[in-house]
Design goal:
Elements (H helix, E strand, L loop, with lengths): L6 H32 L4 H29 L2 H19 L5 H15 L1 H17 L3 H26 L4 H17 L13 H8 L2 H30 L4 H25 L5 H20 L4 H7 L7 H15 L5 H30 L2 H28 L1
Helix pairs in contact: 1-5, 1-6, 1-7, 1-9, 2-3, 2-4, 2-5, 2-14, 3-4, 3-5, 3-7, 5-14, 6-10, 9-11, 9-14, 9-15, 10-12, 10-13, 11-13, 11-15, 14-15
């Protein structure tokens, strides 16, 4: 047991935790919508389910972040988050009714959406103490997403979507076990004071950054929420849909590596503007595609959209939010990245899909991303003059 407490052991735990956590993510993002589709839900119902959770996650992200910073017990917060997911998925197993599933998915999302922000927070703290780069550890999440995207695709193609929830239970249980082995990387002598955090967050620069994150996140969530259903409508199999997830997750790995080596040479805001521009291009290409293989190829743009955007946004977040409020800052980033954006993308995207078609959803996502390009460049030039 003691070997898990040392540097190499903790590195293994963190890598494994990222791997398994993103295995769960691929189920939630790609195969949960297909599961609901197969049991007879409409596009609007699916969009509603995926907007209820993000609405609740607005509160859960903030609650998790504040609790982690206030108690300095980030690993215990992670333990409780995984335990809550297990209970929600166990309740979801026998359900087929839309109303009941909506409520349970809300509970599941309450515990699931803070995971990434809390994982990123503990990983950045651990990376400093273990003398490793954040990207080198986070890369194992991408590997988990890529490998499990194709593995789950073949498995569910041969057995049917009924196993989706059961597989999710298994991956979350493994995550809980690994989280129990995490060391304490959050020791700090600086007390948490909400007023000091509020003074940081209410600055014009912080407000502009989080507002622009919402715009890009809507584009990203529209891809996540409606790609699988769109491909299904064009006749794609579960394995083909899994290949799309594989293409996106594999493509981000070399970008994470390059950014860990050379990202510091570039200013954050122009990089964020470039990533947002690539999101706009990605969405526009999706809106005019008609073949499943085209959707798979377009997902390789994940490298120059999410790959650049996510790491660079976290770098900028470290600049504007002090270390003692890192979990809270990460939680707020997670709230707008998944919560607010998921609410907008799920509700608006579901309505557009049913009222018009998939093209309208992706075109709107592209418009949001293009607006973010202008915003990031404006903030950059304004900041350069100060």
């Amino acid at each position: 047991m003691m070997r898990w407490l040392n540097g190499s052991g903790q590195l293994t735990v963190l890598r494994g935790l990222h791997f398994v956590n993103y295995a769960t993510m691929v189920l939630v993002v790609t195969y949960f919508p297909l599961y609901f589709y197969d049991i007879g839900f409409t596009k609007l119902q699916i969009g509603t389910i995926f907007s209820i959770g993000p609405l609740l996650s607005i509160f859960s992200n903030l609650l998790a972040g504040f609790a982690a910073d206030k108690t300095k017990a980030l690993r215990r917060v992670l333990n409780l988050i995984f335990l809550g997911q297990i209970l929600a998925l166990a309740l979801l197993l026998p359900q087929k009714e839309f109303g009941v599933i909506s409520v349970i998915m809300g509970i599941f999302y309450f515990f699931q959406t803070p995971v990434n922000s809390m994982m990123d927070s503990v990983t950045m703290l651990a990376a400093e103490k273990l003398n490793r780069s954040f990207s080198a550890i986070r890369m194992f999440g991408s590997l988990g997403y890529a490998i499990c995207a194709i593995l789950f695709g073949f498995l569910l193609k041969s057995t049917g979507s009924d196993l989706t929830i059961g597989i999710g239970l298994i991956t979350v249980c493994i995550s809980l076990i690994l989280s129990l082995a995490l060391g304490d990387f959050q020791k700090s002598s600086t007390p948490f004071r909400f007023v000091n955090l509020w003074n940081v967050l209410k600055r014009r620069e912080s407000l502009a950054f989080f507002s622009l994150v919402v715009l890009v996140s809507v584009s990203h969530r529209m891809n996540d929420g409606f790609l699988a259903v769109t491909m299904k409508d064009f006749g794609a199999s579960e394995s083909m849909i899994g290949a799309a997830s594989l293409a996106s997750s594999l493509s981000e790995i070399p970008m994470f590596f390059l950014l860990s080596k050379y990202g510091h040479r570039f200013k954050e805001l122009p990089l964020l503007a470039f990533a947002s521009l690539m999101y706009a291009v990605r969405m526009m290409l999706l809106s005019i595609s008609h073949e499943p293989i085209a959707f798979v190829c377009i997902q390789m743009m994940h490298s120059i959209t999410f790959g650049i955007y996510y790491i660079t946004a976290l770098r900028f977040l470290q600049i504007i939010v002090p270390d003692e409020y890192r979990s809270s800052g990460q939680a707020l980033f997670g709230m707008v990245w998944t919560g607010l954006a998921g609410l907008i993308a799920g509700t608006l995207g579901g309505w557009l899909y049913d009222a018009y078609d998939y093209s309208a959803v992706f075109r709107l996502g592209g418009a949001f991303a293009l607006t973010a390009v202008i915003g990031f460049m404006f903030v950059h030039f304004r900041r350069s003059r100060v």
